Amino acid sequence: MTTSEFDGPISPFAGLGVAILAISTSAILVRWSTAPSLVKAFYRVVFTVALLAPVALIRHRGVLATISHRDLAAASGAGVALAAHFASWFESLNHTTVAASVTLVQAQPLFVAVGAWAFLDERVSRRTTIGIGVALAGMVLMSVSDLLAPSSAPRPLLGNGLAVVGAVTAAAYVLTGRSVRSRVALVPYVVVVYSVCAVTLLAVTLARGDPLAGYPLREWLLFLGMALGPGIFGHTVINWALAHLESSVVSVSLLGEPVGSTILALFLLTEIPTLPTVLGGAVVLFGIYITAS
């Protein structure tokens, strides 16, 4: 459905703007929390499930009962991939700057394109190939700059690498669930995915011995904020907007997240990115723009 076909009371562009602002707060909320990375990721997903489950049970109970075993398996695989995405990206923010981490993790469309070509036999256009090449050049520039220039980040190369892992696993999440979303409604699908994601994160958290309780009220409010802001008002609204706008419009608009996160980090965390990081990030974003547009 195109924008001209939308005649509802809420503008999809307004919804998309709110969503981009909401997801831009994710890195800030993660940084503000002092809990272990896996614990933050676990409670973000648990609170998101808690907020969405009543809707799924009341409005989509019949859909939940009729999900096929194949779709359930695919949704479960997507949930495991999403758990790996959250775990790697949240940890990356402990080692590199918000600007670098959010820019690199937003490179997901590049890996979706490569994965679709490798596993789904989808054709990769010349434009997509050029975009991937440009973005990879930006990633190399950001990594080399971390070796040559001083940075306020404690271990920028490790953090950047984890952010790229977060992008790859996010792409796996998208590719795994691509076919399922054509057959299963949004809320039932994400409840299944988030539930499997939460169980996976819980298992890894317990294996590492990270404490799940004993946190002050401030931490619980941050966990809830991660679920409400980036989770509900961010990614859920983006999925709603996809029903009213072309996917290319939504994909390109997501490039606003690294910009928004960097600005918020500047004012709320007093974190000033280095010039090479800004330049490399700009090259990465330009490559993603070429690929997604």
UniProtKB/TrEMBL annotation:
Residues 18-143, 158-291 form the EamA domain. It comes from the Archaea. Keywords: Membrane, Transmembrane, Transmembrane helix. The keyword Membrane applies. The chain crosses the membrane at residues 12-30, 42-60, 96-120, 132-151, 157-175, 187-208, 220-242, 249-269, 275-292. It holds the Pfam family EamA. This is Transporter. It comes from Haloferax mediterranei (strain ATCC 33500 / DSM 1411 / JCM 8866 / NBRC 14739 / NCIMB 2177 / R-4).
